[in-house]
Write a structure and sequence with these properties.
alpha+beta; two-stranded antiparallel ribbon; 2 helices; 2 strands
């Protein structure tokens, strides 16, 4: 499971910040499965902040 931290970075349940490559994979999965809960806007914000 992944969650969006208050600082805008994605982390998994053991608090490791995920790599951008892993994030991109997670993002591509979210496009295939919209109910996954990640929107493109939220995803972009996590890297622009």
């Amino acid at each position: 499971m992944y969650k969006l931290e208050k600082n805008g970075k994605w982390s998994n349940l053991d608090q490791q910040i995920i790599k951008k490559e892993e994030f991109n994979l997670l993002l591509s999965e979210s496009f295939k499965n919209p109910s996954f809960g990640i929107t493109p806007k939220r995803s972009a914000n996590s890297f622009n902040s």
